[in-house]
Amino acid sequence: MRVHNFSAGPAQLPLPVLEQAASELTDWRGSGMSVLEDSHRAKNFAACAADAEATLRAVAGVPDNYRVLFLSGGATGQFSAIPFNLTAAGGRAAYLNTGQWSAKAIEEARRQHVEVEVLADEAASSYTTTPAPGSYTVPAEAAYLHYTPNETIGGVEFPDVPEAGDVPLVADFSSSYLSRPLDVRRYGVIYGGCQKNLGPAGLAVLIVREDLLDRARPDVPAIWDWKVMAATDSMLNTPPTFSIYLLGLILHWIQDTGGLVAMGERNEAKAARLYAAIDGSDFYANPVEPRSRSRMNVPFTLADPALDADFLVGAHEAGLTNLKGHRSVGGMRASIYNAMSDEGVNALIDYMADFERTRA
Predict the structure, then answer these.
(1) Which of 140, 230, 296, 349 is the most exposed place for a label (fewest CB within 10 A)?
(2) Catalytic residue among 27, 43, 64, 101
């Protein structure tokens, strides 16, 4: 039986994509072998990677003056690559800190000997808020402004795109990639791990404006050098071929189900129903300020934490899995990414109501 998987990542994938991958697993494109077994230099895989890029460009509206890279190491690898590619040692960069993933990016930039200026730090609210527009000023001399549009752990999402002026805006979209329409032209660099909305773990997708490819330090390792990777079509090393294959299938699924406008509407409706159920109850609570609530990751607590274990046992029995909150936050967390169906969200809401009736 397929469960409703609320994992924060690796996350639930679209069932039609999994079924297609299963049907092709032992004989891909009539080759008599799996995509897992084919060479990344072979004609079939070259066409697969090219199709994934073309479909991403079509779905996200990527302009011609941006390069698309498929990179190993996930978003965490890019925490290192960003300062390597955009600053000189000792250079200055600006960050907005809204949670644990922002903080990790900041820490890694400092390890790369970047002078980090944190323009806004939401620690005082226990990372349940986002900075208000106009509450900070981006230094003109900053090499870039980095922010995390959606914080997976805290369930916090920016309701707007930060204004950076002429400073390149860099965004870690790992947990909200292609979850709604995106104006790529607002950004210098968009990146994210694929294991939330775009496929399995291990692959990062990076979209970078071409004029930024000439800023890398001379000593940046080639594997992290975006210009080198762009020149080799992301194949300086053997890429995560199966992840790229699945990415392509998921991009076609997004395209076939209405594109990003329809995806954004579905995600907004799912989140609105779940937040309404939480807000309409005295038994459940969400700690995030309403304007900064995530559409992808919905944390909530029970009135009596002693009931958490029973809640999780009952949820598992009802086919609702991976609802335990992150250890640093506690409570519950429902991650309702693109592949989470209306049925799954409704099943969770019904279960929450039943549990409250019997335990409140």
Answers:
(1) 140
(2) 101
Contact criterion met (CB below 8 Å) for 220 and 86: no
pLDDT in tens, 290-337: 999 999 999 999 999 999 999 999 999 999 999 999 888 889 999 999
> Which residue is catalytic, options 28, 43, 166, 196?
196
Element (H, E) at 73: none
Q: pTM for the complete prediction?
A: 0.97
226 is catalytic: no
65 has binding-site annotation: no
> Quick one: CA dihedral 156, 149, 292, 195, positive or negative?
negative
Neighbours of 99 (CB within 10 A): 23
**172 annotated binding-site participant:** yes
Q: Is the peptide bond before 10 cis (omega within 30 degrees of 0)?
A: yes
Is the confidence at residue 346, as pLDDT, over 80?
A: yes
Was 266 annotated as part of a binding site? no
Q: Which domains does the chain have, with CATH numbers?
A: 4-12+259-359 (3.90.1150.10), 17-256 (3.40.640.10)
Phi-psi region of 9 (alpha: psi -120 to 50; beta: other; left: phi over 0): left
Is residue 140 classed exposed, middle or buried when 0-12, 13-18 and 19+ CB atoms within 10 A define those classes? exposed
> Is there a binding annotation on residue 327?
no
What sign does the CA torsion over 190, 193, 194, 196 have? Answer: negative
Residue 310 is labelled as binding a ligand: no
Q: What proportion of the chain, given as a percentage, has pLDDT over 70?
A: 100
What residues contact residue 211 under an 8 Å CB cut-off, 6+ apart?
65
- pLDDT for 85 beyond 90: yes
Task: Find the catalytic residue in 38, 172, 225, 253.
Answer: 172
Torsion 310-288-117-88 (CA) sign: positive
Tell me what the mean pLDDT of segment 96-105 comes to. 97
Q: Does residue 39 sit in helix, strand or coil?
A: coil
Q: Is the pLDDT of residue 360 over 80?
A: no
pLDDT at 90: 86
